[in-house]
Amino acid sequence: MGSCCQGDAPTPPNPAQTAAAQTGTNVSTAVANAFLNNTNQVTPQGSLSYDPTGNYSWTDPSTGSTYNIPRFTATQTPSPAQQNIQNLGEQSKTNLAQLASNQSGMLTNMLGRPMDISGAPDNWHRSISTLMDNPEAQTGFGDVGMQQRTFGDAGEIMRDYGPNDFSADRTRVEQSMYERMDPQLQRDRAQMEARLADQGIKIGSPAYQAAMDQFGRQLTDTRLGITAAGGQEQKLQADMAAQRAGFANAAQQQAYTQAQGRGTFANQAQSQDFSQEALRGQFTNAALGQRMQRDQQIIDAANKERQTWLTEQYAQRNQPINEITSLMSGSQVQQPNFVTTPTNQIPTTDYAGLVNNNFSQNFQNYQQQSQNFNQIVGGLFGATAGYLRSDRREKDVGDKLGTIFAAGPDGEKPLPVYEYAYKDDPASTRHIGPMAQDVEKIDRRAVKTRSGTKYIDMTRMGSILRDKVA
């Protein structure tokens, strides 16, 4: 449950005092960093020194506190050899300046005359004229004719071969066969009837009727054969007509294909003529481009020749001025090369943060202790009012949860609090509270014994508890 006791809530820090302390810490750290990082240096060319040469008094407007902040002066001193070079350099500058003054008089006549560039090469004008005479690029070529989009009609396609279904031809064939077979059938019937009469078979008898049925079936077969022969003739005529129509359509398709081939050939020839004309135009434009590049190179060479001539003339005019400028520049003394000194930064102590964090931690501990005390005491007093049966002998005692403090006749003493359940409770409900035997050690008047069982007087118990928990 913790090791410290709960008392009054911690007092919040004073913001003004905290800010003043933080400002003092910051100023002290800044002064220490200044002395730490202002490192004196000595090099072969000279030395660099930092010296505190005074103080600056600064008053914090929020607290009124005054701080003395040191000021530093950085001094560079050249070595004796470098000092001697500087002295000689100043004398040399004086001499060169005098010489430059004398030479500058020569520039009066030269600068008084304008520069003559009449002798510059002028063949670049002719080059520009040549470039302008180049012919224009070819942007078109001759017409090679229109493409062929149609060709001759090859005739209509035959979609049937006449309205005739050749039934007449079939009827003619069947009629001819019937006319040929009918006399023979009549003779066969007469012969069969004579034969039956010779055999004594009378007309209408079963034998006679059977013979006539057989003859009828033969006659039916003959007629069916004639009908089949007529159908074959009709089909033959229809097939021949279909073949003639197919031949006509094939001829028409061939004529269409030939006409289409002639049109395609003509368009291919026209496309080839178009491509040839386009290639001739491209060749002409490529030749013109090469000629333009050659003329441009001629112009560039002419311009370069003229620019070179002008550069030489300007150099002759500027040389005396450059010489005088060089004389006036003189030599320079080598300055000391100081190394980069290590920078040491002492971190500023966050005094305000430490104070506020300490207050936050103490306040959190206070809140936790209050919560623990409320939980324990709430569990204790939430059980019942009046007398509470709390005899250790009748309880199944669990872990110790903490300690509260109670004031008895002999002074304030710690009272342990446990989690427990009554042994005679079938549900084994868990409770929180002290044992009667422990309360009796602090205040005997807070415990009553009835029928051998100890009870805590909750009214008396509430008066001796203290607002502390460990």
Structural account:
With about 475 residues, this protein is of the alpha+beta class. Among the domains are: about 125-330; about 380-470, no CATH class. It is about 55% helix and about 15% strand. The chain is built from 9 helices and 10 strands. The strands form 3 sheets. The chain has a 4-stranded antiparallel β-sheet, sandwiched between helices. A 3-stranded antiparallel β-sheet has the order 1-2-3. It has a 3-stranded antiparallel β-sheet with strand order 4-9-8. A hairpin with an 8-residue loop joins strand 6 (about 410-420) and strand 7 (about 430-435). Helix 2 (about 80-105) crosses helix 6 (about 205-330) and helix 5 packs antiparallel against helix 6 (about 205-330). The longest helix has about 120 residues, at about 205-330. The chain is flat and about 170 Å long. It starts with 14 loop residues before the first helix and ends with a strand. The relative contact order is 0.12. The model is unreliable at about 1-5 (pLDDT under 50).
List keywords for this structure.
about 475 residues, alpha+beta, four-stranded antiparallel beta sheet, three-stranded antiparallel beta sheet, 9 helices, 10 strands, about 55% helix
Distance from first to last alpha carbon:
6 Å
Rg (C-alpha, Å): 68 Å
Give, in spatial order, the strands making up the sheet with the most strands. Answer: 7-6-5-10
Strand content: 15-25%
On the 0-100 scale, what is the average pLDDT? 78
Count of helical stretches = 9
Question: SSE string, helix = H, strand = E?
Answer: HEEEHHHHHHEEEEHEEHE
Share in helix:
55-70%
